[in-house]
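Exercise 7.
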Amino acid sequence: MIAGMTDTADHDGTGPTTEEAAAPTPRERRIAAWRNAPRVLARLGFLAPLKERLRLLEAAGDVHDLDETSDIYGNGVVEALERRVAELLGTEAAAFFPTGTMAQQVALRCWAGRTGDPAVALHPMSHPEVYERNAFSQVSGLRPVHLANGPRLPTAEEVRDFAEPFGALMLELPLRDAGFVLPTWDELTEVVEAARERDAVVHFDGARLWECTEHFGKSLEEIAGLADSVYVSFYKSLDAFGGAALAGPASLIEEARTWRHRYGGAVFQQFPTALSALIGLDRELPRLPEYVRHARVVAAALREGLEAGGLPWFRVHPEVPHTYDFQVWLPYGTEFVAETAIRAGEETGTMLFANHWDPKGPGLTFTEVYVRAAALEWTAGDVREAATDFARRLTGAQPSPRLPD
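Solution. The predicted structure, written as tokens, is:
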């Protein structure tokens, strides 16, 4: 049940009727509207029906020899994927992991053994601190320490001046919860140098590293080359079924394979996921810079449309997206905005905001906007028109909101 909503019950206390109990939830309605809408900004594979999802593997023969014996405990096609990742990132080796949570714990545990310091410096908005239930400390014996507080990556000065020692610096590129933000290339290199001055290793949480080349104007190999180790995801950018990889020096990766087994990550067969990742590297990776460039067009047109629709306050953050994902903030209640977005999709067949909305304070909510291949069919005018219609639905349905300070 959505926070703030009450159960539907009869006045006599007997509970909801059969019809009420069967009513779709807002999430179900949102996903149905997204699936049925002829026009969306992104068609995310993990939300597609199973029969549609399985069609991805029809291209498996284009990326790997399907006459080869299937993988067993990480050989065969999994090894082929590992070699491909190491080649793309310019590292000595790479190891496949079922999840990024496991990959990063293993990487930082291995580094802690080498440095003798279990402290990991990271931003408090980093994925392990927000989404992984304290896994670093509860499972791996690591001690997270927080660098910086604002919605940005830490600066070189903050790294140099940090009051206590740490063995590893972890940087999430991009920092998702801050708005998928990235530093400049010069800022990133300075932060890495500052960590090295403190004899700390540098690990990149690069779940979305694939998307960063356009912003930095650098190759994947150049970006990954700044760090001592890098984690990348296969489903966040590449639309694979799941999985991740840890890349770095051969000695680190060899130790990481041992810890992968100890953590329960030596899965018997992974060929569907590995094949889907190879397909993603073949199909999606070359298109990511184009998505980033178009996201900038979408973000600018969104601002214009929301303003034309009469919204007294809103934020598109960052104003110029660093990757192809960004945030939109509105001064309204979360449930009201979510319902407005769903109805707009149901009634117009255009799903501008297909993601969920989250509260960020009294009368303030935000969502993440994803721009993928489907968005390339939208012109700036299309986005402006949809944003103007959405804004008018908001302003016409309830009194003007109180503006944030």
